[in-house]
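== Sequence, structure tokens ==
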Amino acid sequence: MSELSPADAEELHRNNDLRKLGFEPETLVANQTPHFTIEDIKAALFSSTFSNPKTLTVKLHKGRTVQVAITKVEPRYAVNSLKLEADENSPATCYEHPDWYMEGWVVDGIATATAQGLRVRMFVYAGGDDSPEPDDMYAQVIPTYSYSEGEVFYVSIPDD
């Protein structure tokens, strides 16, 4: 069942490039400014315990803010097209600092040993050559059933 409704039409933005980043159609993606640092990501990944997970705060569509225990992090190095345009004969070069693809579980007390809770995927953009710190992020609830067809839409979540 799609969570897209006619009431969402005014705030929706189409971005099928999000599919290349790992997002799926039929579940809205929330674009936001991340309120965590690289050190917070490291702590969430390496300092969590079963009884005391270190979480990242993530906003989802319709104002829901959740705490996510991180289970997967992948660096994604982006080609620096500005350097490539400056010298077409030079080999491709990437930005110094990677962007990050992450997945995790919402820590809300609903998950049990036999039933997992809500899963979330995130793509976090870093500052490229300027800074390793996150400066933009897309987040999506991972759908229970995968949809290969359709467009990917996102909504912008304002800062509080």
